[in-house]
Design goal:
The complex is a heterodimer of chains A (about 120) and B (about 170).
Chain A: H1 3-20, H2 24-66, H3 92-95, H4 113-117
Chain B: H1 3-24, H2 29-45, H3 56-86, H4 97-104, H5 109-116, H6 119-130, H7 135-142, H8 146-169
Classes of the chains: A mainly alpha (about 120), B mainly alpha (about 170).
């Protein structure tokens, strides 16, 4: 079989395809329909996003209003960590004061007859 | 190129595009139409952009080929998932996406012979003999080098001739 015969066979195939081919208008019409149906759903997610954002901001505003404190808020300067209590050790009072000359550090915590009178 | 000009160009090459889409879809008319719609949509939406490095038809053939391959993969995956859900067969038992083409159309000796060729050989022969492209243009459509396209062309032509001769002898 030579090249011309192959060419002839392909030409037959091409002719049979041309007979079966849909018109351009038909394909183009479907394409345009797909294009418009694709464009429509794009609006929907935007609307949903806007709605969700509006609801979220409304809930946030309501929540911040209802939880507004009647008592003044604690400032950062006065705030203490809840675990500060763990730092208190027995005898920390002795270490936190400056002893005076002629006096004992124990005087402050032990009541003796001499310091009772003072 | 504006929408009107694009539409005019598409209309001009439409019959050729349909023939090529048929070749890429195993001569299944429904699949070919689906692929053409997808391609026209991507061209009109600007997702596939003509860069004027080749002729409009050659470029469009490349887009059609890619879209058809993508559709085949999707269809194959869909089939795989459905069959897995049904629990009927193991994935290994499924044919590959390209192999599906070979069983699509067996109407006459030529189509049967074409379906039995390797996909690259079939593509280059369709492009050269059916669409009158040069081997170089066919290589551009297929996204392969010129040397590779020439090899596929020569081997495909010899194999096709042998198959057609055999079918004639029978």
């Amino acid at each position: 079989m030579d090249e011309n015969e192959i060419r002839r066979r392909f030409a037959q195939l091409r002719e049979s395809d041309r007979v079966r081919a849909p018109s351009f208008a038909q394909i183009y019409g479907h394409t345009r329909a797909r294009r418009s149906s694709r464009a429509a759903p794009r609006v929907r997610p935007l609307l949903i996003d806007a709605l969700v954002a509006a609801v979220a901001s409304a809930v946030f505003a309501w929540h911040s209003q209802s939880s507004s404190p009647s008592t003044p808020r604690e400032t950062i300067a006065t705030w203490r960590a809840p675990t500060d209590i763990l730092l208190r050790t027995p005898g920390s009072e002795l270490l936190g004061t400056m002893p005076a000359l002629g006096a004992s550090v124990l005087d402050k915590i032990i009541s003796t007859p001499s310091n009772k009178g003072t | 190129m504006d929408d009107i000009e694009l539409k005019r160009q598409l209309e001009r090459v439409h019959p050729d595009c349909f023939g090529w889409a048929m070749a890429c879809c195993g001569r299944n008319r429904d699949d070919a139409e689906e692929v053409l719609q997808t391609v026209y949509l991507s061209v009109l939406d600007g997702r596939a952009r003509y860069d004027a490095r080749s002729s409009f038809r050659t470029w469009l053939f490349g887009v059609i080929r890619q879209s058809a391959a993508s559709e085949r993969r999707k269809a194959w995956l869909r089939g795989l998932l459905l069959m897995r859900e049904a629990g009927r067969v193991e994935p290994a038992a499924l044919a590959s996406p390209d192999a599906g083409i070979e069983f699509e159309s067996r109407r006459d000796g030529m189509q049967h012979a074409l379906a039995r060729l390797a996909s690259r050989q079939r593509e280059v022969l369709e492009l050269v003999f059916y669409h009158d492209l040069t081997v170089e243009e066919a290589a551009a459509v297929m996204g392969v080098g010129l040397g590779s396209a020439r090899t596929h062309y020569a081997r495909g032509k010899a194999r096709l001739a042998a198959m057609l001769n055999n079918s004639r002898d029978l």
